[in-house]
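Sequence design from tokenized structure. All designs in this work follow the same two-part layout: the structure record, then the generated sequence. An example of the structure record is given first.
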């Protein structure tokens, strides 16, 4: 899988803080802090921003290496990260 190789360079290649802030702003306008599931979380930029704003985050990605990169940003350990195919969402809780 390409993302297993790309994970270490992902943020340097595609990180866009302005776009991430816009996504977070839109999510805040639609949904008050709650239990949220982020699919295809990548390196966890949006996941981390939402967690800092009070959302209880569970995030998953198919790439184990991308999940490792996302976990490395979550120093407080407040986010649950899963390596899982989003086409097969089993054993998960309920989310808003």
């Amino acid at each position: 899988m390409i993302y297993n190789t790309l994970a270490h360079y992902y943020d340097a290649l595609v990180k866009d803080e302005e776009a991430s802030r816009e996504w977070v702003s839109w999510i805040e306008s639609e949904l008050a802090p709650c239990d949220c599931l982020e699919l295809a979380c990548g390196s966890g930029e949006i996941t981390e921003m939402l967690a800092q704003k009070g959302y209880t985050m569970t995030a998953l990605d198919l790439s184990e290496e991308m999940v490792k990169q996302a976990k490395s940003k979550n120093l407080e350990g407040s986010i649950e990260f899963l390596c899982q195919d989003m086409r097969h969402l089993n054993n998960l809780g309920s989310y808003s």
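The longest helix spans residues 17-30. We note this feature because it recurs in several other targets discussed in the main text.
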